[in-house]
Amino acid sequence: MQAIENQTFTKQRIEIDDTQFTNCTFDGCILIYSGTGGTALNGCHLNDTGFAFEGSAAKTLELLTAMYQGGFRELVEATIAGIRGEQPAPAAPQA
Fold first, then answer.
1. What is the C-alpha separation between 57 and 79, in angstroms, rounded?
2. Residue (of 66, 64, 93, 92) closest to 79 by Cα position
3. Which burial class, exposed, middle or buried, applies to 24 when counting CB atoms under 10 A from its CB (0-12, 13-18, 19+)?
4. How far is CA 84 from CA 14, 15, 23, 88, in A?
5. How many C-beta atoms surround the C-beta of residue 64 within 10 A?
6. What is the 3-class SS of the chain, one letter each residue?
7. Strand 30-33 and strand 50-53: pairing?
């Protein structure tokens, strides 16, 4: 994994797969994650910066969206709760 430290990026489109950023600043950037490798953002500052998902990462979000809209809302909500480090609420019994 590539390591980048103490850099400032301005108005750039940055692919973040296989890269660890430490103490970096992103101003007006778009961070692209494709799901081809790990990434880390440690001690970074994001100003007017967003994320975009491409490739496998985008397909994962499409699956979660379809599941949510297709009647599996509780499963998706439990997944998100796990991401937040929360204990997911127990699933309601099926009738």
1. 15
2. 64
3. buried
4. 25, 24, 22, 10
5. 15
6. CEEEECCEEECCEEECCCEEEECCEEECCEEEECCCCCEEEECCEEECCEEEECHHHHHHHHHHHHHHHCCCHHHHHHHHHHHHCCCCCCCCCCC
7. parallel
* pTM exceeding the 0.85 threshold for the entire prediction: no
Among 44, 37, 47, which residue's Cα sits nearest to residue 5? 44
Q: How confident is the model over 20-71, as pLDDT tens digits? A: 999 999 999 999 999 999 999 999 999 999 999 999 999 999 999 999 999 9
Would you say 35 and 55 are in contact if contact means Cβ atoms under 8 Å apart? yes
Place of tokens 């880390």: 40
Cα–Cα nearest to 33, from 12, 9, 58, 11:
58
